[in-house]
Design brief:
By secondary structure, the protein is an alpha+beta fold. The chain has 4 helices and 8 strands. The strands form 2 sheets. A 5-stranded antiparallel sheet has the order 1-2-3-4-5, sandwiched between helices. Strands 6-8-7 form a 3-stranded antiparallel sheet, with helices on one face. A hairpin with an 8-residue loop joins strand 4 and strand 5. Helix 1 packs across helix 2. It is globular, with a radius of gyration of 15 Å.
Length: 179
């Protein structure tokens, strides 16, 4: 499957591939991964990257690796996610060490949401946030999402469900970020 590349003002969102093994290992070895199933061993991080790649084949959409366009630095993994057991499709974001506080998660997630609404025709989307992950809750709120309900996953435990505004409720009509 050909994974589309999205572009924002500062970022390039591209499909995950073998060059992402080391950045994923580093992320999943760190405490930054604690809200998304980590820390993980190198072997389990490799398997997680395989899951990210496979999601595109199984669902026809997925999460992109996020690069700073100007430098090529990989700063995170952001996009559309709906594995078995999820309550409904979501927009998720993981930022790597040193990428926080720069607006990358919000910028990339807005591009992913525009793709979900404008290309895939979705009419709703959520973001799942662990209750202690205040930074993620702030990203969801900046995107106009609101705390809707709660969900308990068999493996990941208790999460908050943040509901994003519907396409018709977004003032600027979305973002033409895909190419």
């Amino acid at each position: 499957m050909k994974i589309p590349t999205l572009h924002t003002e500062r970022l390039t969102l591209r499909g995950p591939d073998a060059r992402d093994i080391e950045p994923m290992r580093a992320f999943y070895a760190s405490d930054r991964s604690r809200f998304v199933g980590g820390p993980l061993t190198a072997e389990l991080a490799w398997r997680h990257l395989g899951t990210e790649i496979g999601h595109w084949t199984l669902r026809g959409y997925g999460r992109w690796m996020v690069e700073v366009t100007e430098t090529g630095e990989i700063v995170g993994n952001v996009g559309l996610w709906n594995p078995e057991g999820w309550p409904e499709p979501e927009i998720g974001w993981d930022l790597f060490e040193g990428a926080e506080g720069k607006g990358y998660a919000t910028e990339a997630a807005l591009a992913a949401r525009a793709y979900a609404y404008d290309v895939l025709g979705w009419t709703t989307v959520i973001s799942l946030v662990k209750p202690a992950n205040e930074a993620s809750a702030r990203v969801a709120a900046r995107m106009g999402a609101f705390l809707d309900t709660e969900f308990t996953h068999e493996r990941w435990g208790h999460m908050q469900v943040w509901r994003h505004p519907a396409p018709q409720d977004i003032a600027d009509g979305g973002m033409e970020a895909y190419s």
